[in-house]
Structure formats: C-alpha cells, structure tokens
C-alpha cells in the first residue's frame, strides 16, 4: 500500500489537534485511512487525500481546484472526494479539507461491523 508518509503526518497532526474523539489509522483503499469515532474521515494516498464530506457540500466541493469524485468501479461515491496534493501545499489548504471532513464526521453513518 503506497501512501505519502509526509502528507499522512500532516493529516495526523491536524486531526489530533482538532478533535478529542477516538482516532485510529487503518490501511485500506490502497492507502492510510484515518478513522474518527470508528468512521472513515480522511484517507491518504500517494498523490492525494480522500475526504468524507457532507453530501450537500459534495457538488460545490467538486468545483474547487484539484478535486474529483471518488469512483469505485462504475459508481461515484457521493460524499467522498479526492483532493490532489498539488492544492495542499500549505497548512491552511490542508486544514480546510481536514476540517470539512471532521465537521461531517459526527453526522456520518458508521460502517457495519463484521
């Protein structure tokens, strides 16, 4: 599983500073996923992050530079967005997306337990 370790460190730092909720890291989707309260929040791959957003904000977010929908097979995963690392160079840029994911996290449905 390839993921950008430096970008993961930056995400880890931002999440830890922004929440007192339970945080776990899992290798999934070919990268590293940060789970907050047992819910997928932010994922890190080699050249982008995946953020889980409020579905109402999804279409607006797609209009932002460096953003594209997460696609699994032929299905667009509404509420899941890829953000290219080229638009995450500054702390403020990355913090914007991490905070959007954290804002939605309390409302997000948890995955089913196996």
From TrEMBL:
A Pfam short name: TfoX_N
Family matches, as InterPro entries: TfoX_N
Residue ranges of domain TfoX N-terminal in the record: 22-103
Protein name according to UniProt: TfoX-like protein
Species name: Chitinophaga japonensis (Flexibacter japonensis)
């Amino acid at each position: 599983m390839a993921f950008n370790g430096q970008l993961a460190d930056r995400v880890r730092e931002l999440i830890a500073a922004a929440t007192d909720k339970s945080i776990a890291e899992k290798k999934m989707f070919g990268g590293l996923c940060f789970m907050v309260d047992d819910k997928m929040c932010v994922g890190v791959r080699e050249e982008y992050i995946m953020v889980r957003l409020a579905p109402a904000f999804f279409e607006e977010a797609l209009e932002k530079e460096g953003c594209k929908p997460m696609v699994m097979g032929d299905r667009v995963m509404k509420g899941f967005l890829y953000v290219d690392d080229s638009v995450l160079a500054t702390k403020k840029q990355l913090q914007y997306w991490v905070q959007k994911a954290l804002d939605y996290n309390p409302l997000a449905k948890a995955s089913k337990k196996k």
